[in-house]
Predict the structure of ISXO2-like transposase domain-containing protein.
Amino acid sequence: MNKYAFVSCGDTITTKLARSRLALDIWYELLWWFVYDFTANKTAKEVKLPQKLVHRCFFTIRNRRSEKREKLRRVNAVKRGRGAKTLLQPVFGIYQRNGTVYVKFVKDTGKKTLQKIIKGKIVLESDVYSDTWTAYDGLKKKGYKHETIDHGNKEYFKKKENKKIHINGIEGFWGYMKEQEFRFNYRNLSTEEMVAKIIKILVKSAPLND
């Protein structure tokens, strides 16, 4: 693997990356492993860095890239005017504890639409965990054991039989989908160009803390 030896970027980019607490050469190396689609755990072993640090850096990369993606979508929606809503067609997902995911494009995220899908896909009396979106209100009355996890109030899991129950599975799936979307859209870039692309996204957003 060539790692980061052939990265080409200007002085401004180098300077901004250097403001991070993480050494510049480490950022470059992590970016190469990221572009090659290695997991954070595998990368941590290869570069001999703490797993938490690599996970945090990979999360930062994905988060900044998603922010850039959403910003572009909002700009395009403004430019297009009527009909732009099709750019933001909602997608509904159900994640089972065995790792199976069901995904469906929906016309809206209202209560009637989502609960109809839930009724068709989830057996009554099942344990159902969701965020606090109002469309899920009333699931208990329909026969489900429904509980919400309020991330807005810094609640990240429910305790049940000494186990922590969370909704990170479905959120991780959405993150994976965004990841594959980015890689597909820029599949014609060389490895060096992909690294340079991600660097530009990183330095154009908020200061790096790692």
Summary: The chain has two domains: 11-83+174-204, 88-172. The CA atoms of residues 40 and 58 lie 7 Å apart. The mean pLDDT is 77. The chain is about 50% helix and 10% strand.
